[in-house]
Amino acid sequence: MSAPAPAPALLELDEVEARFALAASGLPLRRRRGGSVVAVAGVSLRLERGEMVALVGESGSGKTSTGHLALRLLEPAAGRVRFDGEDVTAVHGRELRRLRRRMQLIYQDPYEALDTRCRVRAVLEEPLLIHHRGMARGERTMRVEQALAAVGLTPPEAFLSRHPHELSGGQRQRVAIAASIMLEPEFVVADEPVSMLDVSVRAEIMALLAGLCDAGMGVLLITHDLPTAARYADRIAVMYLGRIVEQGTPTQVLERPAHPYTKALLAVTPRLDPLDRPEREALRGEVPDASDVPAGCRFHPRCPVAVEHCRVEDPRLRPVAPGDGEQDGHAAACILVAGDG
Length: 341
Hints:
- There is one protein chain.
- By secondary structure, this protein is an alpha/beta fold.
- 28% of the residues lie in helices and 20% in strands.
- The chain contains ten helices and twelve strands.
- The strands form two sheets. The protein has an eight-stranded mixed β-sheet with strand order 6-7-8-3-9-10-12-11, with helices on both faces. It has a four-stranded antiparallel β-sheet with strand order 2-1-4-5.
- α4 (120-131) packs across α5 and α5 packs across α6.
- The longest helix has 16 residues, at 199-214.
- The model has no long low-confidence stretch (mean pLDDT 86).
């Protein structure tokens, strides 16, 4: 008797690509043809139930576009998105609307995410009115109060009639998270959920997201903050110019970084111990224009250890030999990486 097939991952991105059209210039002396920018170039990622995966990188690296592809807010130019084994890229109409109940987005800016004209009750009731039209008002109120309590806004009755401007930044973000879990989704994309908040509030919001993972929800965390990713994520994927250049557990990525870009990010990360300063991997120049990606390895113009072959080969992720007691899964897109054979 054969063993049962393993359960599909909650989310699978398979070589997905996102393109944005460039408008032609209207200036007579600078007229140019409209082209396209490849914001996400062949990204593959897997996320399990109850797992938090962090996408880390500089602004413009393609993190948010990858999150939008996962939610089908962007149509992939290539590749496949699978949610619970179902090909999301082939779903339309009512079936897509059904899937949207199971996946939600937490926006970066809590001040822009909430309609200032609406009270908290109306903000949280809106998803129920859209997806559960037959729900009675009393049941909606109960669900709203449960969501507020779940995100730590207690007693819920004290917040129902408030407008967003009557809330602190942390309270606004909690309301935004409450709105995202109203439909009890299985998967959430959290796009820089704490970057607009005071340091004292960030840990509370991240602990809240970690609690959702403990309850079985999958979270794709988009952040530029490596320490936050290391503290809360189960796995980290480092992005540069539309590609994942390194991935692994926080221990693997932070203690044994294999890609020069990851090492450079770690070198400029503040540390509590002033004597704990890793050797700096200096970056040259600026992030290249996404409409004109360098040939070969896209990081080589800024890489302090690039060799001539880096100008030719665009490396894919390759396994990194595990350290003592480490599990497999550490990979980096660099021709200088010593693999596991």
